[in-house]
Amino acid sequence: xxxxxxxxxxxxxxxxxxxxxxxxxxxxxxxxxxxxxxxxxxxxxxxxxxxxxxxxxxxxxxxxxxxxxxxxxxxxxxxxxxxxxxxxxxxxxxxxxxxxxxxxxxxxxxxxxxxxxxxxxxxxxxxxxxxxxxxxxxxxxxxxxxxxxxxxxxxxxxxxxxxxxxxxxxxxxxxxxxxxxxxxxxxxxxxxxxxxxxxxxxxxxxxxxxxxxxxxxxxxxxxxxxxxxxxxxxxxxxxxxxxxxxxxxxxxxxxxxxxxxxxxxxxxxx
Length: 270
Ligand code: IPD
Ligand code: CA
Ligand code: CA
Fold this sequence. Notes:
Blueprint: H1 3-25, E1 31-33, E2 40-42, H2 43-59, E3 64-67, E4 78-79, E5 82-92, H3 94-99, E6 105-112, E7 115-123, E8 128-133, E9 138-142, E10 145-148, E11 161-164, H4 178-187, E12 190-192, H5 197-205, E13 211-217, H6 219-222, H7 225-231, E14 235-238, E15 250-255, H8 260-268
Parallel strand pairs: 3-5, 11-12, 11-13
Antiparallel strand pairs: 1-2, 4-5, 5-6, 6-7, 7-8, 8-9, 9-10, 13-15, 14-15
The structure holds D-MYO-inositol-1-phosphate and calcium ion (2 copies).
């Protein structure tokens, strides 16, 4: 398996999809709702996913695919470490995209079993492509130039900028992250809810934020971002401290490493 080839393919694909989304951003959107009355999907989510899945099948016909809008494939390729599986989020931040709020991303992660080996998160509106392959570090490519990513060195909550997000069942579920948000809002320098989990992970990898947590994420939300953070020297676990694996409805804790115990203690105490 040639990781460099896989990475180049994934970066190129994210840029191609990014163009489709930049074009779609100013057009009118046909909005339908999925898991709840606040969980939207547009024609551009569907078109982007069709493009991504088509390209993967063309190039890697034996790989498995887990894709948010339902274009899943079982795959037949297994390495000694497990299946080769893509986690695809064609637009991470659809609420933002649908409202014309220019913060969303394409998220493409490739796993070998439960191990991330390639991760690319592309923000088309800023032309920021965050990418990593296992063992080779994480980078940000902007304007054709790549620079290495590194997590921050912040070691107190009081001086940290944190990020979080809320599940689409927040209006009907008691696991709504409200108490946790209130506590971290008080304890930190700043708390952000920007609306794209994949970029939330990429921003921890870049040192723009120091930590991030969210409940009930899907594997396609964090599949790519996990590798960015690990390769940038940060830490990712499930909120209960167990190792991160691609799950439907995973509770994720992400940090620069130094803040991990403090964030975990805080969450456990609530
Ligand atoms: C959502 C975004 C959001 C997060 C939600 C996700 P979508 O993904 O990542 O930031 O808070 O939990 O579901 O629906 O825009 O792909
Ligand atoms: Ca998502
Ligand atoms: Ca999505």
